[in-house]
């Protein structure tokens, strides 16, 4: 039996909700916004609790949907990153 592997369109994905303390463990925008408790702060490239951002008054600056995420953080090689004009490779985070 051969299973066909296809990607699932973003429109069909449903975010899950964890405890806000989990948010800082997400390292990319896409992984962050997949958790309904979290939002991505583009200003410093971190995932933060949406609740805490509301308390701090910084929630308007958060990315909360996958279509607004830059694809840079999900690139695995320098070449993949180089192919996108808006991305820069960070050699300190390379494998």
In brief:
This protein is α+β, with helices and mostly antiparallel strands. The protein is built from three helices and three strands. It is globular, with a radius of gyration of 15 Å.
How is this fold's topology laid out?
Blueprint: H1 29-33, E1 38-41, E2 46-49, H2 50-56, E3 62-63, H3 78-82
Antiparallel strand pairs: 1-2, 1-3
How would you characterize this protein structure?
With 95 residues, the protein is an alpha+beta fold. It has one domain (15-90): ligand-binding face of the semaphorins, domain 2. Helix content is 18%, strand content 11%. The chain has helices at 29-33, 50-56, 78-82; strands spanning 38-41, 46-49, 62-63. A 3-stranded antiparallel sheet has the order 2-1-3. A hairpin with a 4-residue loop joins β1 and β2. The longest helix is centred in the middle third of the chain and has 7 residues, at 50-56. The mean pLDDT is 76.
Strand pairing plus helix content: what structural class? alpha+beta
Uncertain residue ranges = none
How is the quaternary structure best described?
Answer: single chain
Report mean pLDDT, rounded to a whole number: 76
Number of DSSP helices? 3
Shape: globular
The name of the CATH topology is ligand-binding face of the semaphorins, domain 2
Biggest sheet statistics: 3 strands, antiparallel
Give the helices and strands as they follow along the chain: HEEHEH
Our estimate of the beta-strand percent is 5-15%
């Amino acid at each position: 039996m051969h299973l066909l592997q296809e990607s699932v369109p973003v429109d069909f994905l449903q975010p899950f909700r964890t405890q806000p303390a989990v948010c800082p463990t997400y390292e990319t925008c896409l992984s962050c916004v997949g958790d309904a408790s979290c939002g991505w702060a583009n200003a410093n490239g971190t995932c933060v609790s949406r609740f805490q951002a509301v308390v701090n008054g910084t929630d308007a600056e958060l990315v909360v949907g996958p279509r607004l995420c830059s694809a840079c953080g999900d690139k695995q090689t320098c070449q993949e990153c180089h192919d996108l004009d808006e991305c820069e490779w960070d050699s300190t985070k390379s494998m």
